[in-house]
Amino acid sequence: MSPEIQAALTAIGARAPGFTPRVGLVLGSGLGAFAAEVAAVASIDYAELPGFPPPGVAGHAGRLVLGEVGGTPVAVLAGRAHYYEHGRADAMAVPVRTLAALGCETLILTNAAGSLRTDMPPGSVMLITDHINFTGVSPLFGLRGDDRFVDMSAAYDPALCARFRDAAAAAGLLLHQGVYVWFAGPNFETPAEVRAAARLGGDAVGMSTVPEVILARHAGLRVAALSIITNLGTGLSSTPLSHAQTMAAANEAGSRVRRLLSTVLAQYTA
Asked: What's this model's pTM, rounded to 2 decimal places?
């Protein structure tokens, strides 16, 4: 265990003594309000936790919230660091490994993404069933030992995915499913890149999540992930792309994702 993780655990233990979360969550753009739904025992700014990245993107608060949702103890990362902010794929390594060290067995990730399908318009929610890494980088670069060779054959846990599908059906929410394609950003994709991603089997594109999935699997955590569709990919719509558009669409659809997360956590079992 690294000195940063040990120091983070000490800081967390001082603020929430004896608290052991079972589920970790990473809140992407438009989902920061979910942190307010946690019956919190502690809320800690990343600045107080060694190795936790400072927030660098609008809509990412940079705060760890510990508490319960639907009776399930959770650790919520309200905000993430992105590869495009500094060129480090392992920017979320300390937060993810800290959640595992705290006792989390599952990590649920959320993000904002662009759709590669006209039948999945802005405002849709997509359950990620697999991913394609278009960046060519990994957060495990530089590690030693055989455990760096992580099996990604079922990176998105089938049983967890089934729980999200069941929860959506019970709530009458349309939940799309598909493959998420990770681009480095911060620029949006070109029309040619969007066409290539779709032809290779992608359903949505985005600039996050995949590094945390790899880190979580390396740490032995089960993973599920949701994308809020904020726009159609470049070339599929005449609307110019911007972060402001992303935030507006994510905030609009965020209530459905928060409802889905609350339902799954209330029914959570190991």
From this structure: 0.93
